[in-house]
Design brief:
Length: 213
């Protein structure tokens, strides 16, 4: 599993859509689980260079699901295996990449600092979602890309930026990609961290109207 995380508006969804676009260009297919308000079709159109044929090709090779709450997201994760069986048999459609944008949005909406037992249950259910995705990826040899927000925690009196979901995400994710703003308006820094070795790589990319360059 790979996660991409960072502050709101830093370009995480754009990065995920560009990844999906590249998959289609390689003749592969996507399953996108989108948990936010409206699917960013205009941003996708820009990534496809405002080409209607390319956009249509993308949509013909991508299945988009939109859960309305965390319970629906959890239910979807349990039914992905039979859904795949149906898609393969009836539609000859087998996704090569699953994108979940965002893994923690709906989860955080149900967190409640005054209900500890409820939060423990939510953490258990988040583990179930991730376990189901990992099992699916192993059964069908596909990739999982999780889009996530960042949060802050204090370590040795220093505030550190980490991905949302805490230890649950740390357990399941093998590679995390942190996107952050730089001093330049249209520039973003990328930090790749591979677990458990904690191998790090860094680079900078320019964010344009057509995505990252």
């Amino acid at each position: 599993m790979i996660s991409v995380y960072g502050d709101t508006g830093v370009g995480k969804t754009t990065f995920a859509l560009q990844t999906a676009s590249k998959m289609v260009a390689l003749g592969k297919k996507n399953l996108i689980i989108y948990t936010k308000n409206e699917f960013p079709i205009e941003r996708l159109f820009a990534i496809e260079n405002n080409d209607k044929n390319r956009l249509e090709t993308f949509l013909n090779n991508s299945l988009i699901l939109k859960p309305l709450n965390f319970k629906e997201l959890r239910t979807i994760s349990f039914y992905l295996e039979p859904l795949f069986a149906y898609l393969i048999q009836e539609e000859n459609f087998l996704p090569n990449l699953i994108i979940l944008d965002s893994i923690t949005d709906l989860y955080k909406l149900e967190l409640n600092t005054e209900k500890k037992e409820k939060n423990i249950e939510l953490n258990y259910e988040l583990n179930q979602v991730l376990a189901n995705l990992l099992k699916l990826s192993e059964n069908h040899d596909l990739e999982i890309l999780l889009v996530n927000d960042s949060s802050r925690k204090t370590v040795d009196d220093q505030i550190t930026e980490v991905q949302g979901g805490g230890q649950v995400m740390d357990y399941w994710v093998s590679v995390s990609i942190k996107i952050a703003r730089t001093m330049n308006l249209n520039e973003r820094s990328f930090e790749l961290i591979k677990s458990p070795e904690k191998i790090k790589k860094k680079f900078v990319s320019r964010l344009t109207g057509n995505g990252f360059q």
